[in-house]
């Protein structure tokens, strides 16, 4: 039986065909990003770095905050201390758009992540042209060969890659590719179940202290943040709880807990 992720990926394949019909995507030169490196800024931080997400809606929750103005929300995030902004650019399932990313990256100075289901190099080019400095690659959505190929093409375009995993097999692939920024998604993309223990159990397999590890999904409270910081995460990615609050600064600052360097006791 098809999972929801399979449905999303089918829709993406159709979208990719349309992208190949856009002349400007194929011919326009890519822009040089002026944003700082996500890897460097997360490594320097001794508190949990936060990627704050623009997320209007989602497959698991339906509408979350439909009326949001992405550039204003991103500015609020940056002012509150977010170290990077994630923009969901998928339209059918998350009600986002690539124009949201264009607007956001004009308004902030921190790295901007293009959060989409990237299956093809043309999506990397579109993200770069829109002004993204980081792209998401999801191990569950790609064969290991395709993942490696897209990883290399993204890097060649000057994009940083957040390589997302959810289980040991995917993590081993990410490590064999040499990914430097690894996202551990606490949300199972097949069932939508969210469990922070996914981060706690996978992080022990990452021995290299030079990796940046980002725990994704399901963060609401200071206790949640402390749990993954204690496990050794460098950062967290937060969407829904920031999109629903009237107090972005309070919600964000309570999650900026001290990190625990991996390898120290
Ligand atoms: O959020 C979903 O329902 C979802 C469903 C299928 C694929 C991906 C999905 N979310 C993408 C994300 O990874 C989250 O937007 C991100 O980690 C933030 O999560 P949260 O703080 O729980 O909104």
Automatic annotation (TrEMBL):
Family listed: Belongs to the TrpC family.
Protein name: Indole-3-glycerol phosphate synthase
Pathway as given in its UniProt record: Amino-acid biosynthesis; L-tryptophan biosynthesis; L-tryptophan from chorismate: step 4/5
Enzyme Commission number(s) from the entry: 4.1.1.48
Catalytic activity: 1-(2-carboxyphenylamino)-1-deoxy-D-ribulose 5-phosphate + H(+) = (1S,2R)-1-C-(indol-3-yl)glycerol 3-phosphate + CO2 + H2O
Domain of life: Bacteria
Annotated organism of origin: Alkalibacillus flavidus
CDD domains: IGPS
Transmembrane helix among keywords: no
Residue intervals of the Indole-3-glycerol phosphate synthase domain: 5-255
Gene3D superfamilies attached to this UniProt entry: Aldolase class I (3.20.20.70)
Pfam families in alphabetical order: IGPS (PF00218)
Gene: trpC
Keywords (A to Z) from UniProt: Amino-acid biosynthesis, Aromatic amino acid biosynthesis, Decarboxylase, Lyase, Tryptophan biosynthesis
InterPro entries: Aldolase_TIM, Indole-3-glycerol_P_synth, Indole-3-glycerol_P_synth_dom, Indole-3-GlycerolPSynthase_CS, RibuloseP-bd_barrel
Enzyme class: lyase
């Amino acid at each position: 039986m098809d999972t929801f992720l399979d449905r999303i990926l089918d829709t993406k394949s159709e979208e990719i065909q349309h992208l190949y019909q856009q002349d400007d995507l194929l011919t326009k030169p890519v822009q040089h990003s002026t944003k700082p490196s996500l890897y460097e800024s997360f490594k320097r931080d001794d508190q949990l770095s936060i990627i704050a997400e623009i997320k209007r809606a989602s497959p698991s929750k339906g509408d979350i905050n439909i009326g949001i103005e992405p550039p204003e929300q991103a500015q609020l995030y940056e002012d509150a201390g977010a170290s990077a902004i994630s923009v969901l650019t998928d339209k059918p399932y998350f009600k986002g758009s690539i124009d949201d990313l264009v607007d956001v990256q004009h308004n902030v100075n921190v790295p901007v992540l293009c959060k989409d289901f990237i299956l093809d190099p043309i999506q990397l080019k579109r993200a770069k042209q829109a002004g993204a400095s980081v792209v998401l690659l999801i191990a569950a959505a790609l064969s290991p060969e395709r993942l490696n190929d897209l990883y290399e093409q993204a890097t060649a375009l000057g994009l940083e890659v957040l390589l997302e995993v959810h289980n040991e097999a995917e993590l081993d692939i990410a490590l064999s590719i040499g990914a430097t920024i690894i996202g551990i998604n606490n949300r199972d993309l097949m069932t939508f179940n969210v469990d922070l223990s996914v981060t706690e159990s996978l992080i022990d397999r990452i021995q290299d202290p030079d990796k940046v590890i980002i725990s994704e999904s399901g963060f609401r409270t200071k206790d949640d943040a402390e749990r993954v910081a204690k496990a050794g995460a460098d950062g967290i990615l937060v969407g829904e709880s920031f999109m629903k609050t009237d107090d972005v600064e309070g919600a964000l600052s309570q999650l900026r807990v001290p990190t625990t360097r991996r390898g120290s006791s």
